[in-house]
Amino acid sequence: MKLTLVLFSLVLIRPIFSQQFRPSRKLVSVHENKVEKITEDSLHSTFLITIPHKVLLHYHKIHTENIVVLSGKALMKLGSDTLKIQKGDQITIPKGTIHEIIRVISRKPLRVYSIQSPKFDGTDRYFVEP
Predict the structure, then answer these.
(1) Assigned domain for 35 exists
(2) Closest by CA position to 93, among listed 119, 64, 128
(3) Is 117 within the bounds of a domain?
(4) In terms of C-beta density within 10 A (0-12 exposed, 13-18 middle, 19 or more buried), how is residue 43 classed?
(5) Rounded to whole angstroms, how far apart are CA atoms 42 and 64?
(6) Residue 97: which domain range?
(7) Which runs of E-coded beta strand occur in the chain?
(8) ∠100-38-46 over CA atoms, to 5°?
(9) What is the pLDDT of residues 38-82, one digit of tens each?
(10) Structural domains in the chain (count)
Protein backbone atom coordinates (compact mmCIF):
# COMPACT_ATOMS: atom_id res chain seq x y z
CA MET A 1 0.00 0.00 0.00
CA LYS A 2 2.78 2.43 0.91
CA LEU A 3 4.61 1.69 -2.35
CA THR A 4 1.44 2.30 -4.36
CA LEU A 5 0.87 5.60 -2.57
CA VAL A 6 4.47 6.73 -3.18
CA LEU A 7 4.34 5.82 -6.88
CA PHE A 8 0.96 7.51 -7.30
CA SER A 9 2.23 10.71 -5.66
CA LEU A 10 5.34 10.73 -7.89
CA VAL A 11 3.13 10.51 -10.97
CA LEU A 12 1.03 13.43 -9.75
CA ILE A 13 3.93 15.60 -8.51
CA ARG A 14 6.38 15.11 -11.41
CA PRO A 15 4.55 17.36 -13.93
CA ILE A 16 4.63 20.21 -11.41
CA PHE A 17 8.45 20.21 -11.23
CA SER A 18 9.40 19.43 -14.80
CA GLN A 19 8.53 20.92 -18.11
CA GLN A 20 9.36 19.80 -21.60
CA PHE A 21 9.66 22.50 -24.21
CA ARG A 22 8.87 21.93 -27.84
CA PRO A 23 10.18 24.77 -29.97
CA SER A 24 7.41 26.68 -31.67
CA ARG A 25 9.85 27.84 -34.34
CA LYS A 26 7.70 30.89 -34.95
CA LEU A 27 9.72 32.88 -37.46
CA VAL A 28 9.79 36.66 -37.24
CA SER A 29 11.90 39.06 -39.28
CA VAL A 30 13.47 42.00 -37.50
CA HIS A 31 14.98 44.14 -40.23
CA GLU A 32 16.86 41.49 -42.27
CA ASN A 33 17.51 39.21 -39.29
CA LYS A 34 15.57 36.01 -38.66
CA VAL A 35 14.25 35.44 -35.14
CA GLU A 36 12.82 32.08 -34.09
CA LYS A 37 11.16 31.74 -30.69
CA ILE A 38 12.42 28.58 -29.01
CA THR A 39 10.88 28.69 -25.51
CA GLU A 40 9.30 31.10 -23.07
CA ASP A 41 7.56 31.36 -19.75
CA SER A 42 6.84 34.36 -17.52
CA LEU A 43 10.50 34.60 -16.49
CA HIS A 44 12.34 34.29 -19.82
CA SER A 45 12.22 34.02 -23.59
CA THR A 46 14.77 32.16 -25.71
CA PHE A 47 15.28 32.95 -29.39
CA LEU A 48 17.48 31.60 -32.16
CA ILE A 49 18.62 34.64 -34.16
CA THR A 50 20.34 34.55 -37.54
CA ILE A 51 22.13 37.82 -38.39
CA PRO A 52 23.52 38.16 -41.92
CA HIS A 53 24.97 41.67 -41.52
CA LYS A 54 24.21 43.71 -38.38
CA VAL A 55 21.85 44.60 -35.52
CA LEU A 56 21.10 48.29 -34.98
CA LEU A 57 22.18 50.11 -31.79
CA HIS A 58 19.53 49.66 -29.07
CA TYR A 59 18.90 48.88 -25.41
CA HIS A 60 16.27 47.24 -23.20
CA LYS A 61 14.86 49.14 -20.20
CA ILE A 62 13.65 46.12 -18.23
CA HIS A 63 15.34 43.09 -19.82
CA THR A 64 18.70 41.45 -19.27
CA GLU A 65 19.86 39.62 -22.38
CA ASN A 66 22.28 36.72 -22.56
CA ILE A 67 23.80 35.86 -25.93
CA VAL A 68 25.40 32.51 -26.76
CA VAL A 69 27.23 32.49 -30.11
CA LEU A 70 26.53 29.29 -32.04
CA SER A 71 28.37 30.12 -35.27
CA GLY A 72 29.96 32.99 -37.14
CA LYS A 73 32.02 35.97 -36.04
CA ALA A 74 31.10 39.61 -35.54
CA LEU A 75 32.12 42.92 -34.05
CA MET A 76 29.79 43.87 -31.22
CA LYS A 77 29.38 47.15 -29.36
CA LEU A 78 28.55 46.62 -25.68
CA GLY A 79 28.31 49.90 -23.80
CA SER A 80 31.54 51.75 -24.64
CA ASP A 81 33.46 48.57 -25.54
CA THR A 82 33.86 46.89 -28.92
CA LEU A 83 34.19 43.11 -28.79
CA LYS A 84 35.06 40.49 -31.37
CA ILE A 85 32.63 37.63 -30.74
CA GLN A 86 32.71 34.09 -32.12
CA LYS A 87 31.40 30.56 -31.66
CA GLY A 88 31.34 29.54 -28.00
CA ASP A 89 31.26 33.07 -26.56
CA GLN A 90 28.62 34.02 -23.99
CA ILE A 91 27.81 37.69 -23.44
CA THR A 92 25.59 39.12 -20.71
CA ILE A 93 23.95 42.44 -21.55
CA PRO A 94 22.54 44.11 -18.41
CA LYS A 95 19.29 46.03 -18.77
CA GLY A 96 19.84 49.61 -19.92
CA THR A 97 23.12 48.80 -21.73
CA ILE A 98 23.33 49.97 -25.34
CA HIS A 99 24.50 47.27 -27.73
CA GLU A 100 24.64 46.33 -31.39
CA ILE A 101 26.21 43.95 -33.82
CA ILE A 102 28.31 46.44 -35.77
CA ARG A 103 28.95 43.94 -38.55
CA VAL A 104 29.28 40.22 -39.18
CA ILE A 105 32.88 39.48 -40.16
CA SER A 106 32.48 35.83 -41.20
CA ARG A 107 31.32 34.53 -44.56
CA LYS A 108 28.30 32.87 -42.95
CA PRO A 109 25.70 34.71 -40.85
CA LEU A 110 26.10 35.04 -37.10
CA ARG A 111 23.78 32.60 -35.28
CA VAL A 112 23.07 33.13 -31.60
CA TYR A 113 20.76 32.10 -28.82
CA SER A 114 19.31 35.20 -27.17
CA ILE A 115 17.89 34.54 -23.71
CA GLN A 116 15.86 37.48 -22.38
CA SER A 117 14.64 37.83 -18.82
CA PRO A 118 11.86 38.40 -17.99
CA LYS A 119 9.63 37.20 -20.85
CA PHE A 120 10.26 39.34 -23.95
CA ASP A 121 7.38 40.38 -26.20
CA GLY A 122 9.39 42.66 -28.50
CA THR A 123 8.21 45.99 -27.07
CA ASP A 124 11.22 46.62 -24.79
CA ARG A 125 13.63 47.54 -27.59
CA TYR A 126 14.67 51.19 -27.88
CA PHE A 127 16.79 52.19 -30.85
CA VAL A 128 19.54 54.77 -30.40
CA GLU A 129 20.99 57.10 -33.02
CA PRO A 130 24.71 56.38 -33.49
Answers:
(1) yes
(2) 64
(3) yes
(4) exposed
(5) 14
(6) 23-127
(7) 26-30, 33-41, 44-51, 55-59, 64-71, 73-78, 81-86, 90-93, 99-104, 110-117, 126-127
(8) 45
(9) 999 999 999 999 999 999 999 999 999 999 999 999 999 999 999
(10) 1
